[in-house]
Amino acid sequence: MEQTLSRQAASDAVSDQGWRYLLGSLRTSVPVGSLPQATDVATQAVAACGADADGHLRIDLRADRVVLTLQSLDQARLTDCDIDLAHRLSAAINDIGLQTQPEIGTAALRSVQFVELAIDALDIAAVRPFWKAVLGYTDEPEAAGPTNAIVDPVGQGPAIWFQQMDQPRPQRNRIHFDICVPHDEAPRRIEAALAAGGRLVSASEAPAFWVLADLEGNEACVTTWQGRDDA
After folding, report:
1. Sheet holding 150-151, edge to edge
2. Contact at 8 Å (CB) between 165 and 118?
3. At 231, is the pLDDT very low, low, confident or very high (cuts 50, 70, 90)?
4. 7-95, what's its fold?
5. Rounded CA gap, 44 and 61, in Å?
6. Using one digit for the tens of pLDDT, what is the confidence trace for 29-43?
7. CATH no. of 114-223
């Protein structure tokens, strides 16, 4: 029986291997120099995961990097199997002279991350079917309730979740982006956003999330896994 891990335990288990915990997943990046090299990395990754590859591993293959994501896909959560696979993948990548890394503190344009879209709604159950239909989205495994998030079944678009409103807010944007970054990337990302003309709206829920806004008041949240596990 696979054991579900806390965010803290998952992060601690793999951070030194270049993986970062993001939204119930582990993610890392492998810099490469060409598509043929990226293909070799993907081949090594699938081989390292063996029979567990289909149920846990997702690969985004580009000419300059390969992004590897681990999650127990049938549960849409992280288990001890994913931790074991992360260590096996890092070892396999090291064996071919490359490295798994979160792109923190490097010359990379950005770290590994996930983007979510949040929609404020007075009646979540009423609007959720529209967004599910118009985007061609589906429910996450074991999360098919009328207020649960919806996801792209092929993993290309951002997850969408719904935030409960208590009253109409016509003077405030009701759709905003959540940018889930590694916990050690958040300070740099916030500093860059503020330097680019943004302002800090609230840090009351930090380090779970910081609310930022552009010059016209449109909001975005920088989020991390920290501050979300029960004590």
Report:
1. 138-139, 150-151, 159-164, 114-121, 175-180, 219-223, 209-213, 199-202
2. no
3. very low
4. Gyrase A; domain 2 (3.30.1360)
5. 13
6. 999 999 999 999 999
7. 3.10.180.10
